[in-house]
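Write out the bound-state structure for phosphoenolpyruvate.
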Amino acid sequence: MSKRVAVAAANWKMNKTIAEAKAYMAELAEARADIAGEAEVIIFAPFTMLMKVARGAEAAKAGVGGQDMYWKASGAYTGEVSVPMLKDAGCTHVLVGHSERRGRFGVPEPELAGDLGKVFGDTDASCNIKVKVALEGGLIPCLCVGETLAEREAGQADPIIAAQLEAGLKDVSAEQVAGMLLAYEPVWSIGTGKVCDPDEAQRICGMIRATVAKLYDQPTADAVRVLYGGSMKADNVVGLLAKADIDGGLVGGASLKVADFKPIIAACAAS
Ligand code: PEP
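---
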C-alpha cells in the first residue's frame, strides 16, 4: 500500500473579503516555502473570492474549492452555482454535504427553528447527486459525514455515518471513490472548541475506511483519504494525525489566519 499524502483543507465558511483572500494567499505562499515534506493544501473559499484564491493557488501550492454546488450545469436556479462555473473560477475541489449545508450546526442556531431551517437543505440524496456531478465535471468532491451530539448519545453515530456514506456514494465507482476525500466531522465538535478524542476519531475514521472496503474493496479503502474535522488546531493536530486512518484535517476556525493554519500544514507534511 503506497503512503497517502496528508491533506490540510481550509474551510473559510462565510468569512473574508476579496482583498483579505488575496493577502492570505500571498502569506500562504511564503508559509509553504518554509515547510519541508509533502502535504496537499486545499482552500474552500466563498464563491465571491474563488477567482482571487485561484490566482494565488499556484504560488501557494494549493487546490481551490467551492463550499457547495448545484448539480445542473446552468438554468433557472437563482442563487445556485454549478460545477462548470466552479471550474471556470479555477476550482479543483468542492465540499459536499458539510453539516452546515445539511442544516446541522455544531453551535445551535435557534434562529433557524421551523421553516427557516429548510434554508440549509442538503440530504444524503442531494449529496449523492452532487458527488456524482462533481466527479463527472472534473472536480474532486470532499464528502462530509458525521453525527450530532443527540445521535452520539443515542449510540447511533456508527450506523448514521455508515448510512451517510452508503447513500452519498451510491453509484460512484471504486476508481472515483479512491480519488475522493471523505471528511469525518462530528457535528458537536464543529466550531465548538470540543475536539473529538483522537482514539475515538481514529475509531470512526477506521470505520469509514472499513465501510468503503465493504462497499468497494480493500485497495479503494486504502487509497481514499479520510480527514477529521472539528475544532482542529495547532495544539491537537499532531495527536490526531498520528492515527493510522486520519489522513489530514478539514479546518474551519483555525484556517482563517495563516499563522494558525501553518502548523496544521506542517503537521500534515510531517505525518
Ligand atoms: C468545519 O468548518 O468544517 C470545521 C471543522 O470547523 P472548525 O474547525 O471551526 O470546528
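---
The longest helix spans residues 198-215.
The radius of gyration is 17 Å.
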